[in-house]
Task: structure prediction
Amino acid sequence: MSITLGPSTIASQFWCEMAVDLRRKYGEVSTPEKEKGSEIHKDRFLEVLEEIEVEIKTPGDKLHSNIHNMMVGLELYTNEGLTHELPILAKFDSAHIMGIIDEIKLIEEIQGKNKLKKTQIVEMKTRRSLNPPSSQQILRDKMQGMIYWYGLNSMINKETEMGDFWTAFDIDLIENNFNEPILSEAYMKSLQIPKEKQKEYGSLLSIGNLINETLKRASKLPELTKTIEIIYIHQKTLVEVHRERYNFDERFFTRGMKWALEYWSGKREPGSVGQLNSWKCDFCSYYTVCPTIHKKWKE
Ligand code: SF4
Result:
């Protein structure tokens, strides 16, 4: 069975896999820092795009809104050379990777005597402190950037296919009639689709066409530069506190992904931080429910 994972979830395994496991069991713990971070990301999105509020009721609504945002982001990038909050979808082994890239921008890269237009991935991280991030945080964030790189590269290279969308969004192609809508009336109403056009607009066939067009558009993007950028911003002042520029490392990425997916496919139990990194536990939202900590208390 296919599993769909977000880049930040996979990258978090590089921080502490036990925390990822406990998040699955107990849910996300919201903190003021996370909320502030989401607010900043939303502001950046609104800098370049307009937000339309929609009512999501069915898996079809979720898929349509994702593919619509993808298309809008790709069009904006094609016209302006910059977009924020671009959704991506790709497959690695049996897992689907679904996420949102903070920013892609058009750059010029010098190769020999030529200047080539390339697409660069930029990831933005917000920090509560003005200090630069630790090497462990940078490692986790670099992995996240590489997952985005792999995801967008798969779309540019036509490795992402229409079937990946149906699977990742749980759309049953056998049960659904191709000409019947898979979008809810409430969703189409929030998009202001006239009632008489809803049947056609929301059909599996129309959404398949939209996926096709979006994938075609993605495949026309200038190829990715190997360089990924991570910018760390102070939450309160929005001052840049650190910047990382590094290259996509195929070997590191593939080994890291294979290791991470072993946990998701049930091949091994979640690992926790070692003695050397036990300082991470002092900042962890799952401290009181963590089996590693319970074991320590017993000892
Ligand atoms: S308390 Fe420590 S070992 Fe447990 S989940 Fe948190 S960081 Fe991981």
User: Anything to note?
Assistant: The two ends are 40 Å apart (CA to CA).
